[in-house]
Amino acid sequence: MPELPEVEVTRLSFADRISGAQIMGVQMGKPLRWPLGCDVSHLEGHTVHQVRRRGKYLLLDTSGGLLLIHLGMSGSLSFGADLSPAGKHDHFEMQTTAGHLRLHDPRRFGAVVYAPAEDHPTARKLLGRLGVEPLTDDFLPEGFHHALQKKQSAIKQVLLGGEIVVGVGNIYASEALFLAGIRPTVRAARLSKPRAVRLHAAIRTVLSQALAKGGSTLKDFSNAQGESGYFQLDAMVYDRAGLPCRVCAAPIKTIRQGQRSTFFCVNCQKP
Ligand code: ZN
User: Fold this and answer.
1) Structural domains of the chain sorted by starting position, each given as residue range(s) with its CATH number in brackets
2) DSSP class of residue 246?
3) Which helix (H) or strand (E) element contains residue 161?
4) CA of 252 to the centre of ligand 1 (A)
5) Among 24, 114, 182, 212, which residue has the fewest nearby CB atoms (within 10 Å)?
6) Which residues are catalytic?
């Protein structure tokens, strides 16, 4: 599943090229997670101003309104002047004067949704409950600790929930908790301030490292220049069940939390 660094790398790979381009046509394939919410003809003739990101949503500001794009479980965007003919898993395509933007999404959990503006109920419904962006100045250690105090669930579930801080998905939650020395099952409200501060720093570290490497990726991810599958993260715990911990050599344990696999070291991560 594309996580925040992958979505940001995708954004960076086409944002400059598409800004200022005029939309010439839009085609939709099979239904995605949510309907587009407008007739495709409404978008034609409008100009793309910029591409922003909020959580794992890409926001295309156009002169005719906002397009929110989510990559879901297996989505990837391509952007280019000369794309191959659309295949059976390509479910959104937008021709612009600068190139074609295409969403490839075999599992169709992704979505492209139109909203007249960011404060419109359609956009607010998707973006309204998102927590702070982890790599901005709004994400502060004190505020993070304070917010955790109100959460009784396991810290990993709270991170994945995205209401306190967005974009910390399954891979980076496991990695950040390892770096901070915190067992994923600890109740969020029980974390002391020093431990919350360590976790805050660890989240920023793992996300920045992944971004710097162009995003750790799963096999389905490819960025908008069509490069695919470059998994570059040297994971400490993620997907390493049974392998020796890179710090203490104890075997990495895996458990299920809310239907997702969690990986941790029983020595290095304290309850
Ligand atoms: Zn260890």
Assistant:
1) 4-127 (3.20.190.10), 141-264 (1.10.8.50)
2) T
3) helix 155-161
4) 7
5) 212
6) 2-3, 56, 260
